Amino acid sequence: MNRPARPPSLSRAQWLVAVVAGLGFAFSQYEILVAPLIVRPVLTGLGGLQPGTSVYNTWAGLLFFLPAATGGAVGLLGGTLADRFGRRRVLVWSIVFYGGASLAAAYCTSLVAFLLWRCVTWVGVCVEYVAAIAWVAELFEDPHQRERVLGLTQACIGIGGFLVTGVYYGAVTFAEQLPPILGTHDAWRYTLALGIVPALTLVIVRPFAPESPLWLARLGSAGTRRPRVASLFAPDIRRTTIAATLLVACCYALPYGAIQQTPRIVPGLAELRGASPRHVEQTVTTVQLVQELGGLSGRLLFSFLVVGAVTRQRLLRGFLVPAALAFAWLYFSATSRTLGQVVAGVFVASLLFNALLSFWGNYLPRMYPTRLRATGESFAMNVGGRIMGTSAALMTTQLASVIPGAGPAVTLSRAAGLVSVVACVIGTLGSFALQEPAGARLPD
Question: Distance between CA atoms of 83 and 398, rounded to whole angstroms?
């Protein structure tokens, strides 16, 4: 009986790219997950808005949606740039972009300026993610090795969640002992300002990593054509583009419609009524920490399941169906549950969503040829995820203004439950239209 061939060992260059890509995923996630932690203190402190009012809910929805939508729109161009100018070059400049913007946001004095710099931050993050996925996928020829490395590097996204949670907790606890920013000791300002440190670290390291060999080979071929978004709707890949874009939108609706609203739901729990503001913020960061544990667990779980999955459709539904049940249990009655129950529910919800996000990082590179790989990934992730999917944040915050309930935390929780469950149901039905990869190797 012949034993299956053992995957080749990773070369030094492959190790470097895997480590750098993992760090890039972690630090870009820091910039994304800072929003749920700071949106409430920013709106009450910088904007002077009261939780539960319609203007507060509108601004909360805008702070979640507009930066992501702007990043998605410009990030689509980033995918084209990565196909045209190379994965590594686009990565480095995108990191410089979002690191500087994060620092600028820490020094804002108005909500409008804050919103603007958050949009700029998201532009860099969205460009970086797509280029990194294409870079890693094209460096590994062995299919099983590629699937595993893509899964494990994306699992590093959880590190960014732990990092931002720890930084915010430290800023809340020790803010008064830190040098003032614009004459204040606001924890959210310190958390944003530190976002530039990891970005600068990666800028130093990434130039030493090699460019994608597949991209270089395609660059030197006589038949190279400039990548165009219209090419994604050619007859042979049109179905993939449409189905993937709509399904990614459903998956992104889960964090923006529900998970990222949790820090504003937690203060409404019965156990926190009458607690000091510092204790409330510390509890919020504790829940966020558990959320990140769930996210890391989901990505690790996916990295082990993906190699033995029978079909991509079944794998996708294997996470969407449990997600519908978990989000319904948690959010339809979150404020009537104990803190321990909410923590457990958040862990499971985050696990399932992050497994879904890793699914797309592994699936999309296998569906597009080299000349369109970053462009195709970018279209699905940015148009589907960052523009269409993040609109769930606006849906949830607007529903929270009209849905019945005793208090802002109750209405927000119910709205989050409704939006997330609908997204799961639509995604499950749509998964039957998803095409399977033609083979184990990346298409040329």
Answer: 38
Whole-structure pTM value? 0.76
CA 38 to chain centre: 17
Per the CB < 8 A criterion, the answer to whether 135 and 265 are in contact is no
Q: Give the Cα separation of 418 and 399 in Å (integer).
A: 9
Question: CB of 25 within 8 A of CB of 160?
Answer: yes
3-class SS string, 369-387:
CHHHHHHHHHHHHHHHHHH
Q: Which of 192, 236, 217, 215 is nearest to 34 (CA)?
A: 192
- Give 13-217+226-433's CATH code, choosing from 2.60.200.20, 1.20.1250.20, 3.40.50.150, 1.10.10.920: 1.20.1250.20
Tell me which residues of the chain have a pLDDT lower than 70: 1-8, 198, 202-203, 206-207, 218-227, 306-310, 439-444
Helix ranges (DSSP H) in 175-307: 187-193, 196-205, 213-220, 238-257, 262-265, 277-305
pLDDT at 362: 79
Residues with Cβ < 8 Å from 284, sequence gap 6 or more?
37, 263, 266, 267
Dmax (CA) of the chain: 73
What is the crossing angle of helices 339-363 and 277-305, to 10°?
A: 40
Residue 442: predicted pLDDT:
63
Residue 370's Cβ-count burial label (10 Å; 0-12, 13-18, 19+) is buried
pLDDT digits (tens, 9 = 90+) for 308-327: 666 888 889 999 999 999 99
**Degrees, nearest 5: CA angle 156-161-164:** 130
Check residue 149 and give its pLDDT: 79
Q: Map out the domains of the chain as residue ranges.
A: 13-217+226-433
